[in-house]
Amino acid sequence: MRWLGLDWDGDVVVQTARLPLYEAALGQLQLRELVYPCTCTRTDVAAAASAPHAGHEGPAYPGTCAHRSVADALQLRADARPFAWRFRVSESPPFTDQFAGEVRLDLAQLGGDFVVWKSAGTPAYQLAVVVDDAEMHITEVVRGDDLIPSTPRQLSLYQALGLTPPIFAHIPLVVGEDGRRLAKRHGDTRLAALRESGVKPESLLGLLAWSCGWVEKPEPVSAGELLPLFRLNAIPPRAFVLTASHLRGIGYHL
Known about the structure:
This protein is an alpha/beta fold. Helices cover 31% and strands 13% of the residues. The protein folds into two domains: 15-171, HUPs (Rossmann fold, 3-Layer(aba) Sandwich); 174-249, Glutamyl-tRNA Synthetase, domain 2.
């Protein structure tokens, strides 16, 4: 982040040092019977799926353990059976995304009751991010549109915990020439690899600013110079396809 010319306010937060906060949030959900202990593995859930599923969401949870109450965790511990805690999905709250507009998703079909606490004894992403953002008074969240399905889950947790949610803006991802999100199959496009190869941060920022529609061509620019140009509504609605030509243009060769 420093290499790119970005800074931040507050201290760096390490989640492993914040377990009491997450445990307190889980306790609130347990008191209201909004969660239940679940002994199902991923294999169990996949085997019980009645229909194919798409993307990274996986099959919807069939509710195998939904009959359990919080008190059932005592017997499971006595039997040495590992279990996670799942949140009971009811209504799927719609939300207005600052980039994508009105979003309505059916959580029951999308994934059903979701894990908020892992069997390993640590919080799952959905609970941890809600607790962190609320505790740090985050008011705006800008992230990739692959996380849109997470938003109604998180809004459900904000409501259950009596917390004020931030507003969300989900923007298109940077993808490879095959249309899939960047990964090892596209070569090493990590920021660390670009930096170590000698790519100038201003060159990378210029390429990204151009992909967002903030500048007319991919020329070097600093983060400070981009501040007055930031406009969500200028970002194209489609994913930005990163090509080998783009990378060569900033001095990086795969």
